[in-house]
Amino acid sequence: MTRVHVTQTVAALRSNRDLAPLVKKGELAVVGACYSLDTGRVEVLSGAPSA
């Protein structure tokens, strides 16, 4: 359920009228990720910027 929520939130932020132009220009990256308290690992679900 957490992953679904993160995915939906990322989509909403990327389509936000104020943020979408910045995302399109590459000036803003909206990255969806989940952090595990048990392992300390971060799982990037979508939107990882390329180096």
Gross morphology is elongated
Structural Rg? 12 Å
Query: Can you count the beta strands?
Result: 2
Q: What's the end-to-end separation, in Å? A: 30 Å
Low-confidence stretches: none
- How many helices does DSSP assign? 2
Mean pLDDT: 93
User: Structural class given helices, strands, pairing?
Assistant: alpha+beta
Enumerate the strands of the largest sheet in spatial order, edge to edge or round the barrel: 1-2
Strand content: 15-25%
Explain this structure to me?
- The chain is an alpha+beta fold and 51 residues long.
- Helix content is 37%, strand content 18%.
- It is built from 2 helices and 2 strands.
- It has a two-stranded antiparallel sheet.
- The longest helix is centred in the N-terminal third of the chain and has 13 residues, at 2-14.
- The N and C termini lie far apart (30 Å).
- The model has no long low-confidence stretch (mean pLDDT 93).
What descriptive keywords fit this protein?
51 residues; 2 helices
How would you summarize what this structure contains?
The chain is α+β, with helices and mostly antiparallel strands and 51 residues long.
Give a topology summary:
Layout: H1 2-14, H2 20-25, E1 32-35, E2 42-46
Antiparallel strand pairs: 1-2
